Amino acid sequence: MQHIARKRFGQHFLSDGGVIDAIVDAISPQAGQAMVEIGPGLGALTQPLVERLGALTVIELDRDLAARLRTHAHLQVIESDVLRVDFSAISEAARPNRLRVVGNLPYNISTPILFHLLDFAACIEDQHFMLQKEVVDRMVATADTADFGRLSVMLQWRYQMENVLAVGPQSFTPPPRVDSAVVRMLPLAAPALPNAALLGPLVQVAFSQRRKLLRHTLGAFLEKHNFSGNFDLQRRAQEVPVAEYIALTQQLAL
User: Where do runs of H (alpha helix) occur along the chain?
Assistant: First the structure.
């Protein structure tokens, strides 16, 4: 029976063979590696991945698609909302290998998924995701550009990222109304911060009113934390490089 894409799950199934080959080549799966695919859908990426890997873990929320996937002998199927999945438990079972995570992420919840995975970066080797191009542009943006924002800072403190492939709407069924892109995310071996517990609130306040100078937003936050160091508040949030947000957080944590 043909599966009809479900809007509530944000389903757009990759169907362009050339694009599928290009994505798999970018991922470069090797036999025996521990890999997790988020949202395998109809298996466009799943089949070529499992052919190279030998076995693959997939996370699928749609129960009908999960049932189809269970008929494949070399797939371990986790039927769940990915936001509820403990990737450290999957990693523990895969030791000594670290996890490689891939997926054509549902565009309607892509950002929550990226933030969820931040908690597990230490046990992940790399991530390759298909996302809305606009989101990828924000993920890889540098300071003092229009796309640079909270998402840029909150991911770049922990990952080295690269936009590796552009994908048009015609490569999907049904076609989305946006362009897409594939991003490569490599967790930093020695991140400057142990976690984002303080960085997160700081960055959220900084970007809460992008057009205002930081003295109107971040100023009160720094006063509340008894900050006595030097930090130029006569700038807007997007003018401050990631390294300066990290350095400021380090000073506040002392």
Answer: 17-27, 46-53, 63-69, 87-94, 110-118, 133-140, 150-156, 199-206, 218-224, 242-253
